């Protein structure tokens, strides 16, 4: 991502997208036996028929540029920065608030 937090791994065809991510700032976790467990790649949103999307991250939020919902043009969505968040996407309606420097991005 542009903020350097995540490594994104994408797979795309002409009609579908699927993105996986690796948190580059996540510390190694330990199991009950105190053996280290390396961070792992997680799916952001599973491939869906005729849905294309691109992702970026900022301040704990995924920013999604997608045609989900059979949109003729792409729209902007946001969701918490978690795995399998496709059901959490919320449309972002732009108004007179600035996007940068004190705004959401």
From TrEMBL:
A GO molecular function held by the record: serine-type endopeptidase activity
Pfam family, one: Peptidase_S9_N
Coiled coil (residue ranges): none
Highest taxon, organism lineage: Eukaryota
Listed Gene3D superfamilies: Prolyl oligopeptidase, N-terminal domain
Limits of the Peptidase S9A N-terminal domain: 2-89
Protein name: Peptidase S9A N-terminal domain-containing protein
Source organism of this protein record: Entomoneis paludosa
């Amino acid at each position: 991502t542009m903020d350097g937090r995540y490594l994104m791994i994408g797979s795309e065809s002409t009609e579908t997208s699927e993105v996986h991510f690796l948190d580059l700032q996540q510390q190694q976790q330990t199991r009950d036996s105190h053996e280290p467990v390396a961070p792992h790649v997680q799916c952001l949103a599973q491939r869906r028929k005729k849905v294309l999307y691109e992702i970026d991250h900022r301040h704990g939020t995924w920013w999604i540029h997608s045609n989900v919902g059979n949109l003729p043009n792409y729209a902007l969505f946001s969701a918490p920065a978690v795995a399998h968040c496709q059901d959490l996407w919320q449309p972002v309606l732009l108004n007179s608030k600035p996007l940068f420097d004190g705004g959401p991005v």
